[in-house]
Amino acid sequence: QVQLVESGGGLVQAGGSLRLSCAASGRAFSVYVMGWFRQAPGKEREFVAHIDWTGSMRYYTDSVKGRFIISRDNAKNTVYLQMNSLKPEDTAVYYCAARRLRGSSRSSDYDDWGQGTQVTVSS
User: Fold this and answer.
1) Of 37, 55, 83, 96, which is the most exposed, with the fewest CB atoms less than 10 Å away?
2) Residue 101 — very low, low, confident or very high, per pLDDT cuts 50/70/90?
3) Which long-range contacts (CB under 8 A, 24 or more apart) does 57-62 make?
């Protein structure tokens, strides 16, 4: 099990940028696939991106490709989500999650979750 704490959310104008961080503690962080998900009010939680334990394999949902970048620093037990060219439809609570083995876009495949951080994009 790994404990996750997100930070970096906030209010930003459309077109702006934010960088989310997710700090992990507990078991060896480097063996985990890390994912970012988001949930807007009244909507289901949706996949945003995931990254393998080496940091070399990254996968994004179509709506954020070319705008968001997921990365990780295993020495700091931290995963990041750089969000650029933000749109009002990116407004949501953003969660990081961890699982072992392979990456997945299904939230049910992830074992450990952070508490979330709010991102609000104004038009």
Assistant:
1) 55
2) confident
3) 57/103, 59/103, 59/105, 61/105
